[in-house]
Amino acid sequence: MIKNIFAIFIFSLLFVACSTNELSKQEKEVQRQEVSKELLSDISYILFLLKQKDLDNLNSRFINPKIGLYEVYKSDIENKITFKHSYEIDEIVDIIDSFEIKQEIIIFNCSPYNDAFYGWNKDGTFLTTQIKPYLSQIIQEQNKITPNKYKIEELANIALIEKTSYELIVTNNVIFYLTKIDNLWYITLIDKIKTDCSK
Fold first, then answer.
1. Structural domain that includes position 10
2. pLDDT on residue 147
3. CB of 132 within 8 A of CB of 166?
4. Are residues 196 and 74 in contact, defined by beta-carbon separation less than 8 angstroms?
5. In this structure, are residues 59 and 187 in contact, taking their beta carbons and an 8 Å threshold?
6. Could you tell me if 22 and 100 lie in one domain?
7. Is residue 165 domain-resident?
8. Model confidence pLDDT, tens digit, residues 142-168
9. Are residues 16 and 50 in the same domain?
10. Of 36, 11, 17, 15, whose CA–CA distance to 185 is shortest?
């Protein structure tokens, strides 16, 4: 009897230890990595491709062929936040205010009464961790109407984007989310909400 209790106790300890180890592995896998030279180098290359209006190389190198690219925006009809999914960027602007990459938070001001206060509070290229859970919020709302509309794999990709990405703001141009997938950095989302002042 005592041997059985002792065996159950040992088994429970091993099971809990393995479970805790597995959870800590999963948590490590979905954490945002530190800003590296590799990431900064890739951002510099992205800026160069934007300046050159080189869509072909931007798409072939920086859009993951499996996960693709999300674009969040407000719909024209209902003015609701929505998204589209694709596997390429179809247009780019060549305005680059600065090739220096700063790691700081900037603010976009919507001022309907005075154009002097409208726009970014700083110009340049900025890297932040200010990721918004646009996609998961949209999916949560849509699941109320159509449950299980999205595949588990897509939900996992969205969780990866929202938990591990960096936001790259190129003022007067574009806002990208950059996500590390299979040891390479990819553009996974274009944010057209942050600079949309429509109500």
1. 1-30
2. 83
3. no
4. yes
5. no
6. no
7. yes
8. 888 888 888 899 999 999 999 999 999
9. no
10. 36
